[in-house]
Fold:
Amino acid sequence: MKKTILLLLIIFATMIGYHGLFGNDELEKSKEEKLKEILKNVNLAPDFTLDAMNDSTYTLSEMQGKVVLLNFWATWCGPCRMEIPDFNEIYKEHSDDLEILGISISDTRKALENFVKVFPMDYPVLYGKQRKMDKILRSYGGVYAVPTSVLIGRKGDILKTYPGALLKGHPIYVKFQQDLAAAIKQK
Structure:
């Protein structure tokens, strides 16, 4: 009797073990596929639409295929002003592959018009009502300081965020140039 119970227990344990090893393949594949689906958009840049000073409207998702540099800035920000000549140069050099969007976090169109008379910006300057700007800033993880720049790849994925000014001669600028070159090279 004891041998029979022991034998039944061994058979039962073997069946459970077999099922545990081989019976969950479909379930595991399903979980893995669902996880991949969830994570595939984790680095996708949040979409937005803003007006530009050139009377155009820019929607980020419509720029897929180009590398995009979002530069969150303000007219009252000294380091932001210092970046503009370097961004103008980068924009001219890479205009076929790169779109730079200067996103003013707090300025009105009139203030921006006056600003660009003194500090010419060769790339699009975007603006919006404060409520909309706050939503965009939150969607990018909270932009707590200006300037902050976000490099977006050709497929719309966030490649890198750079808090602070991107100025020639600083180590972060060298890293930015490398990241930008790699993003442009990627087709």
Q: What stands out?
A: Strands lie at 49-52, 57-59, 67-73, 98-104, 125-127, 148-152, 158-163.
